[in-house]
Amino acid sequence: MDIITSYLSGFVDLLKLPYIIYRWLQLETFKEKMNVILLAGNSTEFLNLVLALITLLLIAGLIRPGFLRKTVCGLENFTGKIGHFACWFVLIMMIQQVLIIVVGQVFRGNEVVLAPLGLTLINEELQWLSGQLKLYNAILIAMASAFTFVEGGHVRVDIIYSRLSYRAKKISDLLGTLIFLLPSSILLWWFSWPLATNSMFSQRPMNIFSTKASWRAFKWESSGTAEFTWVWSFKLLILVFAGLMIIQAVAFLLRNVLALRVREEIESHHRIDPIGEQDSTDPKATVEHLA
Fold first, then answer.
1. Domain residue spans in the chain?
2. pLDDT tens-place string over residues 170-193
């Protein structure tokens, strides 16, 4: 009964959300506002609000398939744009790696200095720049994994799945999302929230059971080595990865519900066209994009 009551309270909080945001904006100090955010991001109230929102989307989608179709397109386009942006870090990582090799092996230097017209833009040692490549790789994994899932690019073994009928595949995808993908993504968010906030802020150390917060200032945790020192950025990217995978899990859930709801066949994974090549205002393009 406690679980059901807590779940139903999410619908009430969803209705009260504008008022809750208004009350948060009325807090007098920045510290009080940060304390609320720290506790809210890892609270059962926030979880129940998200579950209530997913439930309402499912109900609305079952009643109006057109709304469900637009919601799926919107969520997948969002993760697609984030993924396209992250792909640029492959080019940056490649150029920086070549630069490190040329400066270190050809010119026998140990640092890269870029100061046009006396304005220093880059003045870092090669060891620091080499460590920075790990950040680019982490950005690519954290921000493009959901986009890769949209296109079906993750490794999977379809020994049984490939033999199933179309409807059985959709039911399998639906149950897999509800049992594995969505809960694991939520758990990752739950555990990475205190990890990321403790690394970015000076505060009372938080954990998954924290009920009190005492934010003091920004900390931006760093290591004492000569390599890339932004430790906080890697922990933040874990949180970003969890958030994007939750969004993609919801989109995949709704996509399979839509596939079971309508008569035409809809692929579980499809290829998102590059940004700007698809007219989202064209209904025909929207249908082709989803199917």
1. 64-290
2. 999 999 999 999 999 999 999 999
